[in-house]
Amino acid sequence: MNVEKLMKMAGAVRTGGKGSVRRKKKAVHKTTTTDDKRLQSTLKRIGVNAIPAIEEVNIFKDDVVIQFLNPKVQASIAANTWVVSGAPQTKRPDNLDNLRKLAEQFQKQAPNAGTGAPTTQEDDDDEVPELVAGETFEAAAEEKTEKPDAAS
């Protein structure tokens, strides 16, 4: 190959310099504030409310704990969305096994907290009485209202 011929071809492929068209618009780089504004508007649309007075948030992930000190915490219970904002610190805890045991105990206790089975008498009051063939709802209702009067 001829070196002079290659240099001539390389010179013809010039993309800038004398005689080239100028760029008409300056390239504008997006800043992070636009992303933050977009995030805040989306969170507002979901209906997120700020939760005050939270001093610390710990997120356990594999063998690492992500810790936020004095974070801004927002939540939307309906959308099942939690937002934790702040400066995170990644730590490897010394007593991870103890923390796992504690978390398991807490999870076992949480589902049992609000369960209280209603008594059978309460269930009977809510149910519709079964009708015998030939009876009407009115007759069954009158019969039921007469029973408490007879007992007293």
Short account of what is shown:
With 152 residues, the chain is of the alpha+beta class. Helix content is 42%, strand content 19%.
Describe this structure in words.
The chain is α+β, with helices and mostly antiparallel strands and 152 residues long. The chain is built from five helices and six strands. The protein has helices spanning 3-12, 32-46, 96-112, 120-126, 137-151; strands at 49-51, 56-61, 64-69, 72-76, 81-85, 88-91. It has a three-stranded antiparallel beta sheet with strand order 1-4-5, with no helix packed on it. The longest helix has 17 residues, at 96-112. The termini are far apart. Pfam families: NAC. Residues 141-152 have a biased composition (Basic and acidic residues). Belongs to the NAC-beta family.
Produce the secondary structure layout.
Layout: H1 3-12, H2 32-46, E1 49-51, E2 56-61, E3 64-69, E4 72-76, E5 81-85, E6 88-91, H3 96-112, H4 120-126, H5 137-151
Antiparallel strand pairs: 1-4, 2-3, 3-6, 4-5
Core attributes:
about 150 residues; alpha+beta; Ubiquitin Ligase Nedd4, Chain: W; three-stranded antiparallel sheet; 5 helices; 6 strands; about 20% strand; BTF3; transcription; Nascent polypeptide-associated complex subunit beta; transcription regulation; Nas_poly-pep-assoc_cplx_dom
- The number of helical elements comes to 5
Instruction: Give average pLDDT, whole number.
Output: 78
Largest sheet: 3 strands, antiparallel
**What's the CATH first level of one domain?**
Mainly Beta
Structural class call reads alpha+beta
Radius of gyration: 36 Å
Q: Kindly report the spatial arrangement of strands forming the biggest sheet.
A: 1-4-5
Q: What's the order of the H and E elements?
A: HHEEEEEEHHH
Query: How much helical structure, as a percent, in the residues?
Result: 40-55%
What is the general shape?
elongated
Question: Roughly what fraction of the amino acids lie in strands?
Answer: 15-25%
CATH homolog superfamily of one domain: Nascent polypeptide-associated complex domain
The beta-strand count equals 6
Give start-end ranges of low-pLDDT stretches: none
CATH architecture of one domain: Single Sheet
- CATH topology label of one domain: Ubiquitin Ligase Nedd4, Chain: W
